[in-house]
Amino acid sequence: MSLYPHSRPRRLRTTPAVRRLVAETRIDPAGLVLPMFVREGIDAPQPIASMPGVLQHTRDSLKRAAVEAVEAGVGGLMLFGVPAERDATGSAAVCETGILNVGIADLVAEVGDATVVMSDGCLDEFTDHGHCGVLDGHGRVDNDATLEVYAAMAVAQAAAGAHMIGPSGMMDGQIGVMREALDAAGHDDVSLIAYSAKYASALYGPFREAVDSQLKGDRRTYQQDPANGREAMRELELDIAEGADIVMIKPASTYLDVIRDARQATDLPVAAYQVSGEYAMIEAAAANGWIDRDRLIDEQLTAIHRAGASIILTYYAVEVANRLRVRA
Ligand code: PBG
User: Fold this and answer.
1) What residue owns the CA closest to ligand 1's atom 10?
2) In a mutational test of the pocket of ligand 1, which residue from 207, 222, 283 has the highest number of ligand atoms less than 8 Å from its CB?
3) Given the residues 198, 219, 263, 305, the one annotated as active site
4) 293-307 and 276-287 are packed helices; what angle lies between their axes, rounded to 10 degrees?
5) CA-CA distances (angstroms) from residue 55 to 75, 80, 155?
6) Is the CB of 124 under 6 A from ligand 1?
């Protein structure tokens, strides 16, 4: 016999209807953002082997997929570009005719203001060495030289029509420099979704295939050490002081503590990115019949939301939004 016979938490778990009524956390399609890839020089969408179900799009298939996402009710799209040619400074990132910039313009022309068009403010897809910045004479990523390119990149993306830019390179000062450049060019309405705490994670492996990354080595001199949680709050404070509109934690499911800390540290919207490796792990286990795929997707997204992220970037955005719509 229980010591407290009247206190029975199980009462609120008796039926699906009761459980639904008392749920503390609900996933809403409006808070989901779909990351998308557009690749230059292909005439049909290409599958990504380590991300089954995710495609590198042509400019045309990108537009169709964007319409599908809008119809599903997703809150935003985050676009990454895969260029045909790369160079040491990532010049295609700044060029008006670069694949990411034309992709942004295509998206805005197709879906307008029906969702939030976001773009990746980082150089790694565009450099021939695969780093997120330009290198100095010793092969090290040169922080301040990179900031100059980021500033120009932000202005190019805003000129292409991006509503929101996501600087993911983890250079010191990137938010401030991009904010200033945007304002000076008259783009003060374009917001910054700051990758505030982005960890040097093994979970980005499939993404590197998705963008055909040229990286040898690693990003540990600019992305954060997984050992450090408090350091994330320092990054967060700086980004907020520099003018971030939204702060993001990435990856998501291995950094729930950091998401929670961010939620408590700021009243800005907090986002989290369920990255390629988190997606690939679910898909691989499901393909083997080892896991209930749909339940795990819901559980992971719920956990990320419960930890404090009201915005979630996830390759499952459209699928989950559609599933929620059917249920509603
Ligand atoms: C780099 C960038 C990466 C991701 C988003 N932006 C990869 C990296 O830092 O190596 C990863 C996203 C994912 O894994 O889904 N600009």
Assistant:
1) 204
2) 207
3) 198
4) 150
5) 20, 12, 27
6) yes
Query: Which CATH entry fits the domain spanning 27-327: 3.20.20.70, 3.40.50.1010, 3.40.50.720, 3.40.50.2300?
Result: 3.20.20.70
* Cβ-contact 58, 39 below 8 angstroms: yes
Of the CA atoms within 13 Å of residue 88, those in its CB half-sphere come to 8
The one-letter amino acid at 98: G
Nearest CA to ligand 1 atom 2: 168
- Residue 250 appears among annotated catalytic residues: yes
Task: Please give the chain's pLDDT, 328 residues, in tens.
Answer: 688 888 999 999 999 999 999 999 999 999 999 999 999 999 999 999 999 999 999 999 999 999 999 999 999 999 999 999 999 999 999 999 999 999 999 999 999 999 999 999 999 999 999 999 999 999 999 999 999 999 999 999 999 999 999 999 999 999 999 999 999 999 999 999 999 999 999 999 999 999 999 999 999 999 999 999 999 999 999 999 999 999 999 999 999 999 999 999 999 999 999 999 999 999 999 999 999 999 999 999 999 999 999 999 999 999 999 999 877 6
Interatomic CA distance for residues 158 and 179, integer angstroms? 11
Q: Which of 196, 204, 223, 279 to mutate to test the pocket of ligand 1 (most atoms within 8 A of CB)?
A: 204
- Are 141 and 227 contacting, i.e. CB atoms less than 8 angstroms apart? no
CB of 122 sitting under 6 A from ligand 1? yes
CA 261, 222, 155, 111 torsion: positive or negative?
negative
DSSP assignment, residue 11?
A: G
Per this entry, what is the length of the chain? Answer: 328
Locate the ligand 1 atom nearest the alpha carbon of residue 35 and give its number: 15
Is 276's C-beta closer than 6 angstroms to any atom of ligand 1? yes
Ligand 1 lined by 36 (C-beta under 6 Å):
no
